[in-house]
Amino acid sequence: MISLRNICKTYKTRRGSRVVLADVSHDFPPGLNTGILGRNGAGKSTMMRIISGSEMPDKGTVLRQGRISWPLGFSGGFNSTLTGRENMRFTCRLYNEDYRRVCEFVEDFAELGEYMDMPIHTYSSGMRAKLAFGLSMAFEFDYYLIDEATAVGDAAFKRKSQAYFNERRKSTTLLVVSHNMSTIRSLCQKMLVLHEGKLRAFPSNEEAEQFYVDVCCGGKIKRKKTRGVREKAGEKTHARKKGEGENGRKNKRKAREKEAEKTHERVSGGGKNGRKTREKEAEKTHGRVNERKTTTRQDRRAR
Prior knowledge:
This protein has 303 residues and is of the alpha/beta class. The chain is 50% helix and 18% strand. Strands 5-6-3-7-8 form a five-stranded mixed β-sheet, sandwiched between helices.
């Protein structure tokens, strides 16, 4: 169980004090994966650091029962002057873990090679994240704290870390913070919203999402359609493109028939109207011919 009791946190800025968490109280029971939605800068990462113990609140208490991880992939706790192997040894002492077992796992999982014996300040950000993620997976925590990402590194390592994380999550409780609703929806059973320093609970996840969209984001983002709606929309689109829908076939047949009629009329001279036009044109032509013949006869007689 993780319990927050009247947590307050304020930061000093150039424009004065900024309240990040204002009298936050909530219980996170084991076995219930919980997600916290919030915009960038809402205080999600601050809450995670306070829960993990890496940062202290200005006021309030955090009650922890069970083993709680640091934020997944968080490398801020490493000593940059120590090597990756020395940081692992120090972490194993803190959590009373077998160093040899942890070291073997992390070396195989993180794939850092000779960098394991080099100072952390020589690592790239991706290498730090790999080491932190591998170290997190080496320990069996009761609670895993996740700040946005569940996989790190390049594409191949992301697939590897995601697969291992999916296996580990079956036997642990997740506490996830993110501004992405799809991430929370895929990992968690319960949704909360952190807005203006307050952690808000809702009767259903749909109400939490609606509040986040309408109030936190001002209605500027669209909620993703459910799978059933997406499938129906895809079927309709496919029918329109392929012309397989009933309306599509009828419309296409009518259009072809009309086009054929127009083509036939053009070729045959336009049906009844075309026939009348041809008759009139023939009469005019015949009249002109007769006039020419009459004029010729008169000329001959005059001569």
